[in-house]
Amino acid sequence: MSASRYQKPRLISLVLPISSVFVLRIFSYFPDQLEQIYGQGIYPHWASFLRTVTGILSLSFGDILYAFMVIGLLRWIVRIRNRPVNITSAFSTLCWIYVMFQLSWGLNYGRPTADRRLGIQASPSDTAYLHALTDRLLERTNDYAAVRHLADPPPFDRLVSAAERGYAVLSGNGYWPAPASVSVKKSLFGGIGNYIGYSGYFNPFTGEAQLNQAVPSVLHPFVIAHEMGHQLGFAREQEANLTGFLAARASDDSLMRYSAYFDMFLYANAALYRSDSVVARRNLKQLVPAVRKDLEALRSFRERYRTWIEDLTDWWYNHYLKMNGQEEGARSYGLVVQTLLALFKRDGDI
Q1: Residue 202 DSSP code
Q2: CB of 246 closer than 8 Å to CB of 156
Q3: How does pLDDT run across 251-294, given as a tens digit for each residue?
Q4: Model-level pTM?
Q5: 200-202/184-186 β-pairing
Q6: How far apart are alpha carbons 46 and 145 in whole angstroms?
Q7: What is the dihedral of CA 150, 152, 153, 159, to 10 degrees?
């Protein structure tokens, strides 16, 4: 067989995966059609199936899957040192992984934004309203801080149930469907996760929401609510922040509310710092002792685990977000302040 005839099957084997990637990319540029076919049709059923299957056991299937993927990658790197690389096969595999990611969850990046689904429009920064919003978040955070001594760290199952009840309230208000099943897990790699820099993550291949229990306990409730937002198909980080906050606020659990208001206050105060650093610093001094203690614990934690590994992870995740349409990259988390401003203007409270 000639070399050209041998290469032909290899080239043909790339047509299907490349075509699939191309079709999915084109599909993502039509948000209304994507919402109807995928967001309201395929994804809710697929996500519910995944959560039902992986929720049977408390074991984190997602962590195990990623561990096997890392081991497999390392083995592949070792093997290619002694044999030529099959570029066609490797590229085809990457294409199929991308297709699986998109179909399993990634297409959610192309759906209409959460604020559009809520009937509001993210508000650009308004200094006067930003002052008022931050003041209200500060007040709420201080009000709920009294519950911190009741349970530290808070029981995991209690927090999962509280977040689920919060999302059920939002469902009753007609915002979006409540999760038909829940699969929230304790990550097996908490210590490693501290150096990588994640407090929680959502696994698109298993449908699991993961909590890194090694991070300061003040973060646990809101991280769970945030990752459950990803489970419901809110892919953008500012959307998961928004939905997590709304669910926590709607919850009947004061620990859940405290964690959410604590997190949102930090985002709003950071945004305020860019326009009025004097007031932003004064706000921090107005936090009650329990909140300042949590803030100091969070600062110490981040300083302790800040290494080149986290810097590398941040760089990768920043580019991952940009590749999926989040132009702000990792800074997109803080864009939730714009939506909070819109809610505050509309409702007069937060």
Answers
A1: E
A2: no
A3: 999 999 999 999 999 989 988 888 888 999 999 999 999 999 99
A4: 0.86
A5: unpaired
A6: 39
A7: 20
